[in-house]
Write a structure and sequence with these properties.
three-stranded antiparallel beta sheet; 11 helices; single chain; 14 strands; alpha/beta; binds pyridoxal-5'-phosphate; about 15% strand; globular; about 325 residues
Length: about 325
């Protein structure tokens, strides 16, 4: 079942080698290790992401070097080159919320400076940049199948992908204790395998993912159209070349905290992704990061709100949500 899912996923994403793992986090760790990331190295990534993006870098002994995000909540491609030092090995862009940064530009920056790229495409299964999938640009890339993602299994699951055959065979061995066969190991490894049961679920879900994303896009469009008319709300720019998964429907709202409690009181489950950016979390302070380092992300952290956009919402529920938001601002 795992083998079957890996092959189907490879066709869906358009990357030659897909290796199923037990989470998006482990996929990131595997990707970084496969590119020989080690102690003292630096990895450039964005300061508004989930903890795992930076955690995977630190687990490998390397240092996350954060850069600010842009008005689409993606890594600011104009700030990447400034963060490059002699120790930089990898650029790790994130497809945050299921939208994408400019991957073509990131790949050309990496090429110019002889760096590798690992995409955190954990929220990006089913998204598109022109006609290519997130996770098909970088050298080794990670996806998640956690219950909150567009293709989800019944628990944890992930995928690490690469077009490089040599790296792929290392990943396959390392994922399974470094084993060549039952009695021999090639090197020390780990158990980061996907359970066959989860692969059965994933094979079924893969067939539905396009439909799920279409529904989320339809819901997002209704929200965009109504909310963009309210002057206290700022919707990010939607560029034609990107098909987003809307893993998260995020926008910026004036009086965010009051709006959040008001909506929750009215039975609408809203969340903040995230109130504290990575560089202001406790372990980042020891690395020398301070408030004020990344003003765009810090400002967004005070204004962002994530609204329900999922595929099971009906029109009536979406209208109710819009009505409540309008009521709040009136
Ligand atoms: C979900 C997510 C992860 C972690 O994936 P898990 O499968 O939960 O380990 C990492 N990065 C981003 C951007 C994510 O959204």
């Amino acid at each position: 079942h795992v083998d079957k899912f890996e092959k189907a996923f490879s066709k869906f994403i358009g990357v030659k080698n897909c290796i199923a793992t037990n989470s998006g986090t482990d996929s990131l760790i595997l990707a970084l290790k496969a590119l020989s990331l080690k102690k003292g190295d630096e990895v450039i990534t964005v300061c508004n992401s989930f903890y795992a993006t930076a955690g995977a870098i630190v687990v490998c002994g390397a240092k996350p070097v954060f850069v600010d995000c842009d008005e689409r909540y993606q890594i600011d491609i104009n700030k990447i080159e400034r963060a490059i030092t002699k120790k930089t090995k990898i650029i790790l862009p994130v497809h945050w919320g299921g939208a994408s940064p400019n991957m073509h530009k990131i790949m050309s920056i990496a090429k110019k400076h002889s760096l590798k790229v690992v995409e955190d495409a954990c929220m990006g299964i089913g998204a598109k940049i022109k006609n290519k999938s997130p996770g098909s640009f970088g050298h080794v890339n990670a996806f998640s199948m956690h219950p909150l993602k567009s293709l989800n299994v019944m628990g944890d699951g992930g995928m690490v992908v690469t077009n490089n055959d040599k790296i792929a065979s290392w990943l396959r061995r390392y994922r399974n204790h470094g084993m060549i066969d039952r009695d021999h190991i090639f090197d020390w490894g780990v158990n980061m395998r996907l359970q066959p049961f989860q692969a059965i679920v994933a094979n079924i879900e893969l067939k539905k993912v396009n439909k799920i994303i279409s529904k989320r896009n339809r819901n997002a469009k209704i929200l965009d159209q109504s909310l963009s008319k309210i002057k206290y709300i700022q919707i990010p720019e939607r560029k034609k070349i990107y098909r987003e998964t809307f893993a998260l429907y995020m926008a910026r709202f004036k009086k965010r905290d009051k709006l959040k409690s008001y909506l929750i009181r009215n039975g609408i489950e809203v969340k903040i992704h995230y109130p504290i950016p990575l560089h202001l979390q406790r372990p980042s302070k020891k690395m020398g990061y301070r408030k004020g380092d990344f003003p765009i992300a810090e400002k967004q952290a005070t204004e962002m709100l994530t609204l329900p956009v999922h595929q099971y919402l009906n029109r009536e529920q979406i209208n109710f949500m819009i009505k409540k938001i309008k009521n709040f601002y009136q």
